Amino acid sequence: MKALMSLGALVGVLGLLLLGGMIFDVVPSNTVRLVEGYMPMQMLIEVGCYVAGFAGLSYMLSAMGMPMPRFWQGIGFWLFFMLYLKFRVYPPIPFSVRAMYGTVSMVAVFMWISASEEDWKKFKQPIMNVLDAQTGMNKMMRYLYLVLIPILVGGFSYNAMVPKSEEPVELRTVHPAPPASTKVHGKTYVLQTSQSPYRVNPEGKYDQEYSNANIVEQGMGRLMKPNANPWDDKNQGYLKYVKEGGEIFFQNCHFCHGDNLNGRGLHAFAFNPIPANFTDPGTIAQLQETFIFWRVSKGGIGLPNEGFPWASVMPPWEQHLTVDEIWKVILFEYWHTGYYPRTWD
Amino acid sequence: MMNSVTRKAGIGAVTAFGVILIATNAGIVFAQGGLPEGFKKGELAAEPSAEMIEAGKRVYFTKCVWCHGVDGAGDGPGADRLWPRPRNFNQGTFKIRHTASGELPLFDAKKPVAGQNDLFETVTHGLPGSAMPPWEGILSEEQRLQVLSFVTTQLVKDRKFTDKQSETQTILQLAELKPKAASEESKKRGAELIVEKKCVECHGMEGRGDGNAFNLKDDWGFSIQPANWHKCWNFRGSRQDPYNVANIFRTFSTGVNGTPMPSFADNTSVDERWDIANFVNSLCERDAEGKPLPIDPLSDKPKINFVIPSDPVEGDIPADIEHEAWQKAPKRYVAMGGQITHKPRNFVNRIDDIWVRSLYNDKHIVYLLEWDDRTKSVAEGKLPWAPTQVNIDIKEQEPKTGEEGSIAANQNKYEVYNDAIAIETAVKWKELPSPIKPRYLFGTNEQFPVDIVKWEADGSVRAFLGTGWDKDFVERDTYEENLKVLKGEWKNGRWYVMIQRPVGNKKDQDYDEDTFFEVGQYIPTVFFAWDGHNGDAGRKMAVSAFYYTFMNPPIPQETYIYPVVIAFGVVLLEGWILTRRANRKKGKTL
């Protein structure tokens, strides 16, 4: 038990030092990066480490005869969590969302400290002591609070009422429901039944297994399979079309969606929100190929009414590309990110 | 035919210039009998292992080939629509180095150390201002070294990184040279030196890159522009640390290979170089308190605030930028991207940001727009298409044209049109569904149009109506008399334009076509910019995202009253709690 707790304390303290160092620029602020796509898991693990750390710390402190009051443990952890959300997570979360997390974590902290009657009493004790003001110290604190709380509340409400020009929060529908069919270059495509004409094996047959076997490997760098180079002149079928799709991508799409398909292209910084990041598991990886076909063909303007605020300047690519080119570029996007399109079944 | 002749002449001139430069440099080195100050002789790194090279090939053909091409000649599928063009590796000419002018950059496949491995740092941090992104976080350290092993051994064809006969390494000892404090005195000396060393001839009197901007070519014959010192986040060698003076010191000491930027190592002392670097660094845009702008790690550009506050003034709005009201007005950075959604598309926008301030009174609102543009352009030719037209049927820049036909080769050969700027605001923005924004950049539809006010470098100011994503703009002749240009001046590579328009009201004006500016509300606003020397006209332009104009209201009285009332309420509450507690205790003890 003791060893376990010490280990927890060690992990927690190291994590805290690292976090503090990154916030105050003692060590480079990108020492431990939040990796896109894995961020929620990473955050859960980090917070888990800190919980272990705090538990270990308080255990060690009480073992050394300097127990920390429950009262301060509860408040301390809650404050820590709020600061973590504010300073660690990037891009920053809007205040309203942080407030939601704050409330939830406060409830959690309350549940923890009121788990047993004794704990709850211990937690309440400091508050009661100040209210009762039996000692001189507590008396002083009571008067201090009496004066400070109204001033603080008044200040906060003034702050809230002063006209401010903060950017209004925009929530948007990222993947609106697609229509049943879409008409591109005069031909109707039923989204449920259409297939990419280029997801084919060397014999020219539609073959998802074959194409899935030749996409880039997941894992750091997302590199192509050693024996599946789209630039090999001998390629037939899928890989040949991947290369053709890549050419179209790097002549039209990379300006916004970026050289690594992560939405950080040359012009991306000018737009709000920045263009879609295809390497994120939340975009093309969870959509059907025909959904992408519809979005690419119709662009931001083709979004349905419920898709507001339509914050997209993506052009309807049917204006610039042929149907074949659109299918090929989609093929390339899946190849390059190493994802499979979702299937209907 | 004509073109290719002038191009060849250009290459010839550059080569001759380079030869003279190298010759004079060599002369000085011999005369001193040593190395330039701050440099030391270094050893060539060992050849990377065959496994590294083979592994690097796999990285190259997944990530790099799309721009740099199969043979590394900078001619991949993406190349012809880019400017600057992707690097042609074949000649072994690399821009950002710690090595003396003309030498190969530092690269050691076993030493990924900052300051000792130039190519590794370039791949890690990317080259801002070009399409080369930072690969850190995408490729592992190992993978970055692997791909560089492949590039330096297989794709650099004219030189060899390990050939002791032909290659030397004279390395700038940047880690050992302590930066000089950026005192006023040092900056003043730097300001004098940049005139003395003729930096201003290319970089311009204010350092906005506007001197001699159209006669410069790189080694491959593509036009190239001098850096704008006010946008340090676009410095190729900024290494994601744009306000670091050491980067400027390094570039100034080593020069930029393949470009007209020479190394100044031989004719300046280290001390002088720090003075110059301090001065150049001090020019980079800073906030009102003189602190570096916060940089967004997602884009490596200044962080964007999408609200453009407008402060109230009593009486007339001053037309003088030095006026106190303008000096106090908050300044916003507005990022601009190329309009690449409709024909004619603008793949290469030369205006990548503008700075906006705003003031209003009871009748008018004024926008002060400042942006860097290396050339003042007033139309010489007739527009090829009406400025209002969209989706016009033109032959676009073919994506695959080879070097000759690429965008990079044809820079500076455009017919010159007017520089221009426009402010677009939504009409009837209050009725747009929440959150208020038109559906598209050029308006939602006839019911929810946008109101566009456009100023051009010939001094004209015009109004248009935009009614949809693929609709031509409609010119509004009757509205123009309401608009006024308070200022329109181009000075040393920067435009200063002040446009005044009515805030409007429902009573006197057309509700369906005019934007009404209401105090304390978020009014969707977009900016368009045109660079006449880039052939920008009509929809070939730079665009911003949606911003919000917010007219700061005077503080209402309630703001002072309610908090006092609330605080008093809290005092009462406290009294109640204390009394209750006291009573309860009494009850217990009794």
Oligomer: heterodimer
CATH architectural name of the largest domain in chain B: Sandwich
**CATH level-1 class of the largest domain in chain B:** Mainly Beta
| Major interchain interface with per-chain residue totals | A-B, 72 and 86 residues
Instruction: Kindly give the count of domains of chain B.
Output: 4
What's the helix-strand series of chain B?
Answer: HEHHHEHHHHEEEHEEEEHHEEEEEEEEEH
Walkthrough of the structure:
The complex is a heterodimer of chains A (345) and B (590). Chain A has 345 residues and is mostly helical. Chain A folds into 3 domains: 2-113, no CATH class; 124-161, no CATH class; 181-337, no CATH class. In chain A, 51% of the residues lie in helices and 2% in strands. Chain A has helices spanning 2-23, 39-63, 70-87, 95-113, 117-132, 136-161, 208-212, 238-257, 289-298, 323-337, and strands at residues 181-184, 187-190. In chain A, strands 1-2 form a two-stranded antiparallel ribbon. In chain A, helix 3 packs across helix 5 (117-132), helix 5 crosses helix 6 (136-161) and helix 8 packs across helix 10. The mean pLDDT of chain A is 87. Chain B has 590 residues and is α+β, with helices and mostly antiparallel strands. Chain B has 4 domains: 1-34 and 179-303, Cytochrome c-like domain (Cytochrome Bc1 Complex, Chain D, domain 2, Orthogonal Bundle); 38-176, Orthogonal Bundle (Cytochrome Bc1 Complex, Chain D, domain 2), CATH 1.10.760.10; 306-551, Immunoglobulin-like (Sandwich); 557-590. Chain B is built from 12 helices and 18 strands. Chain B has helices spanning 2-32, 50-68, 118-125, 141-155, 184-196, 199-203, 245-254, 270-283, 324-328, 402-405, 407-410, 558-589, and strands spanning 39-42, 169-172, 295-296, 301-302, 307-312, 332-335, 337-338, 353-360, 364-372, 420-426, 450-456, 461-466, 474-475, 484-491, 494-502, 522-530, 542-543, 547-551. In chain B, the strands form 3 sheets. In chain B, strands 5, 6, 7, 8, 9, 10, 11, 12, 13, 14, 15, 16, 17 and 18 form a 14-stranded mixed β-sheet that branches. In chain B, strands 1-2 form a two-stranded antiparallel ribbon. In chain B, a hairpin with a 7-residue loop joins strand 12 (461-466) and strand 13. Chain B is globular and about 85 Å long. In chain B, 49% of the residues are buried. The model of chain B is unreliable at 1-10 and 12-33 (pLDDT under 50). The chains are: A mainly alpha (345), B alpha+beta (590). At the A-B interface, helix 6 and helix 8 of A face helix 2, strand 7 and helix 12 of B.
